[in-house]
Amino acid sequence: MQTQKSIVWRAWGWLDGRYRLTPLISALLHVEIPRSARTYYLGGITLFLFMVQAITGVLLSLYYQPAPSAAYDSVLFIMHQVNFGWLIRSIHAWGANLMILFCILHLLRIFFQGAHKAPREITWAVGVLLLGVTLGFGFTGYLLPWDQRAFWATTVGSEIAGVVPLVGQKLLIFLRSGPEVTARTLSRFFGVHVLVLPATLLTILAVHLTLVHQQGLADPTRPVEPAEGTTSAAGQEKKDLLPFFPTYLLDEVIAWYAMLAILIVLASLFPAGLDEPADPLRTPEHTKPEWYFLFLYEGLKLVPRIVGVTVPLVGGLFLLLLPFIDRSPQRIPRKRPVAITIGVATLAIIIALTIRGWLS
Ligand code: HEM
After folding, report:
1. Looking at the whole model, is its pTM more than 0.70?
2. Alpha carbon of 45 to ligand 1 centroid (Å)
3. Contact 103, 130 (CB under 8 A)
4. In DSSP terms, which residues pair with 147 in a beta bridge?
5. How far is the centre of ligand 1, averaged over its atoms, from the C-alpha of 106 (Å)?
6. 251-300: pLDDT as tens digits
7. N or C end of the chain: which has fewer CB within 10 A?
8. What CATH number matches the domain at 37-287, 3.40.50.620, 1.20.810.10, 3.40.190.10, 3.90.1150.10?
């Protein structure tokens, strides 16, 4: 043990001497966080779920074949022949849903605590892009099993893109790699799902986490941010601060363990299923997108299509630019009645449309 330890320390000393790692590690770990900066672990859990998706996704891609003649059978093979293949696939499916859910909860916590306000405008905007990429993972991944549900949900989903004003038809052709959902769509979705989106998410995530590290977490009890060029811990007494390492990080890791346990239980009790193989000539009676797109789908049934597409697009742009539009520095919800009312009303409409879609 003693020798092992000294080997590790010697290796560390060797690297540190060459690359001056100690100041870097110290800058990353020795950060202080305001005690009242409650994050409810939501950003950290989203990060953890992304790591789970990356690991299970790589394992699945060892067996998955992105061609209509082979995709369905390769998924059957993963489920019935590969050791623990069903579990890995189910964890990936549940992980996708939970990652989207926690990303949305993280966004809501930030909005309601006013943590998106200056000086964190760019952290917020980058976060909205992360949510977009996360939804992109859900959309592209859904097609891959190439069963009836996957095929028709993608057909319907990409049709919605076709209604976007001015660029709709071009967007539809771009998404499907042609006018219909075919083998080319499957191979495009696979490439985007395993290469383009992971690379994009990793790049944007690096920016997001660097910004969070540089500014520190917002203290929701402080209506006004300390002077520019300082972190949110500036000016606070020692007793009001928590060390990121080990206290905050340990709590975070416990939350990750709990999440892993939940994932394994969900995946074991409710394993991911598979419908009949995709048949482009047989339209199923009920085609529905996944829960996170249901509100869009339901909205389209209630209003003219052009309105049903334009409103969410404008809403997305509004969300991206929110901290630049709502410029009051006030964080406490009681003192932001207009923003909170609009937020709650929007959320209520989205939940109502989702439930309506679920029940229909
Ligand atoms: C893949 C998705 C995302 C990951 C992995 C992620 C990760 C994180 C982490 C680990 C933190 C620090 C701890 C915490 O607040 O929980 C954080 C903070 C933050 N995130 Fe995210 N995030 C994601 C998406 C988003 C989204 C969708 C938004 C909002 C639109 C957002 C906006 C912010 C902001 C403003 C902060 C600073 C909060 C504060 O100072 O209290 N993030 N993010």
Report:
1. yes
2. 10
3. yes
4. 277
5. 6
6. 999 999 999 999 999 999 999 999 999 999 999 988 889 999 999 999 99
7. N
8. 1.20.810.10
